[in-house]
Amino acid sequence: MKLSILGxxxxxxxYIIHNDSEALILECGIRFSEVQKAxxxxxxxxxxxxxxxxxxxxxxxxxxxxxxxxxxxxxxxxFEAKNIKGQNVISSNVSTKxxxxxxxxxxxxxxxxxPLGFYINHPETGNILFATDTYYLPFLFPNVxxxxxxxxxxxxxxxxxxxxxxxxxxLLESHMSFATCLEALQANDLSKTNNIILIHLSDGNSNxxxxxxxxxxxxxxxxxxxxxxxxxxLTETPF
Length: 239
Known about the structure:
InterPro entries: Metallo-B-lactamas (IPR001279), RibonucZ/Hydroxyglut_hydro (IPR036866), WalJ/YycJ-like (IPR052533). This is Phosphoribosyl 1,2-cyclic phosphodiesterase. It comes from Epilithonimonas xixisoli. The chain is an alpha/beta fold. It has helices at about 30-40, 55-60, 60-65, 75-80, 155-160, 165-175, 180-185, 210-220, and strands at about 1-10, 10-20, 25, 45-50, 70-75, 90, 95-100, 100-105, 115-120, 125-130, 145-150, 195-200, 220-225, 230-235. A seven-stranded mixed sheet has the order 6-5-4-3-2-1-14. About 45% of the residues are buried.
């Protein structure tokens, strides 16, 4: 099983967890044609799409998936925000089986209508934690093998930037900083963790090299900063 990263920033987010026979898509903020290409045009193996919230960089191309009859899963609030009916509503703390994936959504803290993170299990990967667009992580998670966690900005870099006050305040109130990401990881037991994947870095208010180095140094775990075109092995065992 591997993770293919098609986009991980404000220009568009999309990740695919897949093997030869099965694929789960996280977010649909990237053009559908790029998703098709990443899957070698084998849409038959896609068991579903999880969408965290309604903002365009995560939700924009949802209609293309619906038109192709690919099941889309999101909270009632996310679908209501876009006036979309007839899709697969999922709720916090209620597990759902999608193919061989077991998905347990949980509530996040963002400036939108009922955003969700996802605690994902598959026999080939173990547990995967996916949390993006949230200013902190409100829960602890057991036995996570692979962390996909937002690390959007660092306060000292933000303080030096020329970003306007409105955007700065929104960033502080709706996205996870490096310091908060570090604290969230420190609060959890990482003894079973193989990979930490830092996602949704701000283009102007982060430093990918320093973020990766500092997180890897802090926890001794293989750490990545998500970038378009990257592929990462998500096997349950590290070797």
